[in-house]
Specification:
two-stranded antiparallel ribbon, 37% helix, binds FE3-S4 cluster
């Protein structure tokens, strides 16, 4: 059974834009991305929208739906109230290219700033076994689909362009945490670098990133907070403190 729904779509580019109201047919079981595609096919042929898998796995159709960062392909039309206008706008934390498409290259630059996994030199396949608990711990973080909804919602950069230079954001805190927890990674100062170079200290644990994650990764509880605790452990370890005092003499 199909019905007409009201959609409000942001149209524009980096310089200017406005919300446009349309009415569009929606069929049972459809998601917001389906109705956006119908608008594109029937009323706005030049509407720009990024998408790919339509299965919640590629992270391409990230946008803000009624002000909340969400994947359009995972947002059921039926989850909105009867007669409610569904407002779709581009991710606010990143520059608009056109309509619903933003320039997310900030994230790729941040990715390049994280040093890659570094196993011991000369380690051969089968020489080391990882405990299952270590495998499972990092597997949660590997579920990330890089939709950047967590980056978009984090207030540290959402409303503060000036913080982008010194703040990697929640997506990269889980990457750093994963590497920091990896028993074969030999770069032992990852957590200190997370604090000193990637802005871990600017996170004040609002947990908004965890709330919007479509993969339900516990970004704050399982990555950010344990890494913050380990940074403090290292900094205030009395044995290390004493050792550094003795070395200075
Ligand atoms: Fe931002 Fe997540 Fe911290 S939303 S402030 S990185 S808990």
């Amino acid at each position: 059974m199909s019905k007409k729904i009201k959609l409000r779509i942001w149209r524009g580019d980096a310089k200017d834009g406005a919300l446009k109201d349309v009415e569009v047919e929606a069929n049972e079981g459809e998601v917001v991305l389906d109705v956006i595609h119908r608008v594109q096919a029937t009323q706005m042929g030049d509407l720009a929208v990024r998408w790919n898998c339509k299965a919640g796995k590629c992270g391409s159709c990230s946008m803000e739906i009624n002000g909340k960062p969400r994947l359009a392909c995972m947002s059921q039309v039926s989850s909105f109230a009867e007669g409610e206008t569904i407002t779709v706008t581009p991710l606010r934390a990143f520059p608009v290219i056109k309509d619903l498409v933003t320039d997310v290259s900030f994230n790729y630059k941040k990715a390049m700033e994280v040093e890659s996994f570094t196993p011991p030199v000369g380690l051969k396949a089968g020489e080391v076994r990882m405990a299952q608990v270590d495998v499972e711990r990092s597997q949660e973080f590997r579920k990330c689909i890089e939709c950047f909804l967590c980056q978009d919602t984090c207030h540290v950069i959402r409303d503060h362009e000036e913080n982008k230079k010194s703040f990697a954001g929640p997506r990269f805190f889980i990457r750093l945490a994963e590497l920091d927890m990896h028993p074969l990674d030999i770069l032992k100062n990852r957590k200190q670098k997370a604090q000193a170079e990637h802005g871990l200290g600017m996170c004040n644990i609002t947990k908004c990133c965890t709330e919007v994650c479509p993969e339900h990764i516990k970004i704050t509880d399982n990555a950010i907070i344990p890494m913050k605790e380990r940074v403090v452990d290292v900094k205030y370890d009395p044995v290390r403190w004493l050792g550094s005092k003795i070395r200075k003499r």
